[in-house]
Design a protein that fits this description.
Structural class: alpha/beta
Oligomer: single chain
Strand content: 15-25%
CATH architecture of one domain: 3-Layer(aba) Sandwich
CATH superfamily of one domain: NAD(P)-binding Rossmann-like Domain
CATH topology of one domain: Rossmann fold
């Protein structure tokens, strides 16, 4: 089976490519390297001792996609490619709508053209907006508080409409909570440029001395210590969720949504303390203003993924913190 992975050299994409190769899938990766590095390609090969095809290109470019489908018999697609920072999306909404929607529409048109109708879509817990209660179930009302989340919800609606029009499609919508950590080897992990938008790489850069201080955005939320609570999931657990989703859509038609999280919520300060304890290092932080678009708390009920896909998160917060720091130490 040959799987096309868009954005396959990015953080979650690269870990998923590793697991696909470990499970004996053939892989074609397309990535424009906007938020990733080409060297990740060799690191994936070093981890797996397997090769895969890499195309440097943009998913918005129909000609590039058509060439991939002409030259390869693609059995299914995992679609990661897209801009992903909540704060940046509030400041640059047009950039997010243009890129995230254009890339997906182009991909879907080409998939339809070449009769490839199996898709795993990288969605997000942001589609639940500010949930009325916790933990969050897939049946909860959908709404958004920022343009990034809105692009994800719009794409979900597009996918539901596609399936309504053509029941030959098989689509798994995976709603991620907060991916953290890195591969045990330390070869691949999360490595954003500048000040990170996500908490764990921000903590890691402060711990490593690259940044002076962690900004904690708000301490007046309705949570255990006033800082935002999130469901952190190890990126390897998340990647294995994609393998289970691929296995399922290759055998079953239909469309469904699945939460991928641990079901446990940790506040910002709880994560900082866990990181300090596991790695024996101090993390300087300061409380700053709330960030636009953020909510108090968010954690998953992932029982549906367990029941239907046979997937469940295995790794705890200590392992997430240890692996995230190990990646930075190994890549100095």
């Amino acid at each position: 089976m040959k799987i096309l992975v868009t954005g396959g050299l990015g953080y979650i994409g690269s870990h998923t490519v590793v697991e696909l190769l470990n499970n004996d899938y053939e892989v074609v990766v397309i990535d424009n390297l906007y938020n990733s590095k080409e060297e990740v390609k060799d690191k994936i090969k070093a981890i797996t001792n397997k090769d895969f095809q890499f195309v440097k290109g943009d998913v918005c470019d129909k000609n590039v996609l058509e060439k991939i489908f002409i030259e390869n018999k693609i059995d299914a697609v995992i679609h990661f490619a897209g801009y992903k920072a909540v704060g940046e999306s509030v400041q640059k909404p047009l950039m997010y709508y243009r890129n995230n929607l254009d890339s997906t529409l182009t991909l879907l048109e080409v998939m339809n053209q070449y009769n490839c109708k199996r898709l795993v879509f990288s969605s997000s817990a942001t589609v639940y907006g500010k949930p009325a209660s916790l933990p969050i179930k897939e049946t909860f009302p959908l709404s958004t508080t920022n343009p990034y989340g809105t692009t994800k919800l719009m794409i979900e609606d597009i996918l539901r409409d596609i399936y309504k029009s053509d029941n030959d499609w098989s689509i798994a919508i995976l709603r991620y909570f907060n991916p953290v950590g890195a591969h045990k080897s330390g070869l691949i992990g999360e490595s954003p440029n500048g000040i990170p938008n996500n908490l764990m790489p921000y903590i890691v850069k402060v711990a490593d001395g690259e940044l002076e201080c962690l900004s904690v955005f708000g301490d007046d939320y309705d949570t255990v210590d006033g800082t935002g609570v999130r469901d952190y999931i190890h990126v390897v657990d998340l990647s294995l969720g994609h393998i289970k989703a691929i296995e399922y859509i290759l055998k079953n038609k239909g469309i469904d949504e699945y939460n991928l999280g641990t079901g446990n919520g940790f506040s910002v300060l709880q994560l900082v303390k866990a990181f300090e304890k596991v790695n024996g290092i101090k993390v300087n932080y300061k409380i700053t203003d709330r960030r636009a678009g953020d909510i108090d708390a968010c954690y998953a009920d992932s029982s549906k993924a367990k029941e239907i896909l046979g997937w469940e998160a295995q790794k705890g917060i200590d392992e997430m913190c240890k692996d995230a720091y190990n990646f930075v130490i190994k890549n100095k």
